[in-house]
Amino acid sequence: MKKRVCVIFGGRSSEHAVSIVSAATVARAIPADKYDKVLIGITKKGEWLLAPTITSMEDGSWTKSTVHAVISPETDNTLIIMEGDHFEKLHIDVAFPVLHGLWGEDGTIQGLFELGNLPYVGCGYLSGAVTMDKFFTKVIVKNIGIDQAEYVPVRSYELEKMDEVVARVEKAFPYPVFVKPSNAGSSMGISKAHDRAELIEGLKIAAGHDKKILVEEAIVGRELECAVFGHDEKCFASGMGEILSAGEFYDFDAKYHNEESKTIIDPELPEGKLEEFREKAIAIYKACDSFGFARVDFFLEEGTNRVVFNEINAIPGHTPISMYPMLMDHAGHPMKEYVEELIKMAEER
Known about the structure:
By secondary structure, the chain is an alpha+beta fold. It is built from 11 helices and 16 strands. The protein has helices at 16-29, 54-59, 108-115, 125-132, 134-143, 162-172, 196-207, 252-256, 273-287, 323-330, 335-348, and strands at residues 3-10, 35-42, 48-51, 68-71, 78-83, 86-91, 94-97, 151-155, 177-181, 191-193, 212-217, 221-231, 234-244, 262-265, 292-301, 307-313. Strands 14-13-12-15-16 form a 5-stranded antiparallel β-sheet. β5 (78-83) and β6 (86-91) form a beta hairpin. The chain is globular, with a radius of gyration of 20 Å. The two termini are 21 Å apart. The model is unreliable at 254-258 (pLDDT under 50).
């Protein structure tokens, strides 16, 4: 008898559309001869709907579904399906969240799975929360002694005294600086400020995404990413992938809308740096209590070749341009293989 895997996608975050593309890719990679797939889409308004097919995910017709489906917090691994006055219960064996950003990647839905004692793929609720929050990730990475960009934390309510915030940033480091919402992914809400006016505008933009904001020093160098897979002592780190952004930095538009942006798998690196990247990626992965998979991003600083941590992504993208599946495939682990391993890991946990 085949087991039933529930793929959850969409969500209320600003990365809703990216999640749908990633989830369709993942759903196709789940072996149909071993698993039955149930597709649950969360609309931007927060409705949970049963998507009839992967094609309906891609063409958007799933949002017209009249069948609601929600996971019960009771400990019986139940999906409650409702249409009009009719409802039924469906047993599920594993949840596979392919949600990016808030209310999905940040530990919230993982908490629901924990309540229901439901096996699920990927990070736990604590790991999701701390890796989604750039501020707390920095606290953890600082504690294990890995270099990262210096930063000034800002709370959105502090922007009422904008002059004081600007003075604090300008005292810390020179322009340009990066302004980032603490909780956002796919480079949403991030801007690069070259002067005071751009800093003020960037702070206002970031505040539209989160109440916590980081203003970081600009690290000039190459952008490199590493795929990490596994858990505890069974962690594997891939080789590196390099981002060549068509924009001034790799923001949302450069990532998804500019065909001039490029990714290079296994780029040439200075001697010894590949192993340094891989070792530090695993150290950060473990320190953040990661599980299953994650992508860890770095800079290789120009002039010094210093390895500088940027961020960790607990549910890495699986779009056609996403780095994680390319890195894993290059390392000899095609998506169909590692997706099945992720499901098995969920059951073992």
